[in-house]
Amino acid sequence: MIRWGRFSSAAAAFIGLLAFASAEPAQATVYTLPSPDATVVGEDQTVETVYADTLYDLARKFSLGSEELIRVNPGVDPWLPGAGKKLIVPGRHILPPGAREGIVVNLPEHRLYYYPKPKRGGPIEVITYPVSIGKMDWQTPLGPTRVIGKQKNPTWYPPESVRKEHAEAGDPLPASVPSGPDNPLGLFAMRLAVGNGTYLIHGTNNPIAVGLAVTHGCIRMYPDDVAALFPLIAVGTQVRLINEPIKVAWVAGELLLEAHPPVDAQGQSFEPDIDQFTEMLRASVGDTTVAINWDYAREVLQKADGVIATVALEADNPNLPAPEPAPVPAAEPAPGTVPAVPSTQSTSTR
User: Does the predicted model carry a pTM greater than 0.85?
Assistant: First the structure.
C-alpha cells in the first residue's frame, strides 16, 4: 500500500520525541552532504514544551525563524504555549536550485544557505540559517551579487528616507547610532554590491523578528548566527538572492515537495494561488513519469508551511498504480511564476 504524507516510509525524516528540558543547547546548522548530488538536509522532529518555553525561544534554539515554527503549530499561543505541548520542529530542508557555492538566500523561505569551498578531497558541506528579509517598499533585490565589505561593531547611519519614516511615526532617529543595544545592525555586518552598496547581511538587536519581512531590504540574522558566519565569509564571496517558494527533490523514488508562502515585490508573504502553485509543481516534475497524488499535493501547496511532504512516486515500478490525472482548472492557469522582486534597488536600507 502506498502511504502518502510528510513521514512516508522511504523519505521521511526520523521523528524523535524530545523533552525540551533535557535537549541539547542548540541544533547544528552544519550539514555534510553524503554525495555531491544530495538534495535534502536536516531532520524534522517534535519537542514537548515546558512551562517557561515560548515559540520564539524554541525557534531560535532550533535554528528557525519565529514564523516557521508558528506556522506549523497553528492554535498554539507563541508566548504562552504551556507545558506538555507537542510541537513540530521543521528542521528538514530541500537545498535550493542552482550552483552550490557561496551564499544563497531564498526569500520566500526566509533562509540563508552557505556552501564553504570544499577542501581538496574533502566532503561538501552546507550551513543554513533563518533570516529576515525586506518589507513594504524597501525591497530586497533579486539576482547575483557578492560581498564587498565586512565590519565588526558597525555604526548605523540612518539614511534620510528612514529618518523621515521614523520621524513621521513619532520615533525620531539620530544621524548615527554607535555599536550597542540600540543599533539594529547588531555586532557584525557584511556589505553587498547591489543597491550601490546599501544592502547588508547583518545581525540584529531584535532577535524575535528573525524570519519575518521586517527589515528595510537588508538580510537580518540571529546574533549568534551572524557571529558564526562572519569569520567564514571572505570579501568577494558570491551571493545569490532567489525567489523559489516551491522546491522539489527525488529521494529513493519519491518526489518530495517543500512549499513556502510566496512573497510579493515588497517582500511580504501572501496566500498562494493554488492553481499557480500546481502549475509550478507540474513544471518542476517535467516529463518524468510519476504517480502524483494530486489531491494531497494541492493540500500541501495550499498549506505552504515549509514541512517536506511526499507527493509522488516514480511510476517505472509495475507494482505502482497508474498516475492519477491532474485536476483540470476551470480557467487558463496562471503562469508558473511568482511576482519577482526587482533586481536593482537604490533605496537605503537596514
Answer: no
Give me the residue label for grid cell 539594529.
184
CB-count exposure of residue 112 (10 Å: 0-12, 13-18, 19+): buried
Least confident of 43-47, 93-97, 289-293: 289-293
Catalytic residue among 93, 202, 216, 260: 202
- 8 A C-beta contact, residue 128 and residue 41: yes
Phi, psi of 247 (to 5 degrees): -130, 140
CATH number at residue 181: 2.40.440.10
- The answer to whether residue 216 is catalytic is no
Residue 337 lies in a domain: no
The predicted-structure confidence for 42-77, as pLDDT tens digits, reads as follows 999 999 999 999 999 999 999 999 989 999 999 999
User: In the chain, how long is the greatest CA-to-CA distance?
Assistant: 70
Which residues, including other chains, have CB under 8 Å from residue 345's CB and lie 6 or more apart?
139, 140, 141, 194, 195, 199, 217
Banded pLDDT at 183 (limits 50, 70, 90): confident
- Tens digit of pLDDT for each residue in 300-348? 988 999 999 999 887 644 344 444 444 444 444 444 433 433 333 333 3
Q: Is 202 a catalytic residue?
A: yes
Q: Say yes or no: 85 and 109 in one domain.
A: no
Please check whether residue 252 lies inside any domain of the structure: no
Point out the catalytic residue in the list 110, 216, 218, 260. Answer: 218
Q: Is residue 147 part of a domain?
A: yes
Q: By CB neighbour count within 10 A (0-12 exposed, 13-18 middle, 19+ buried), where does 119 fall?
A: exposed
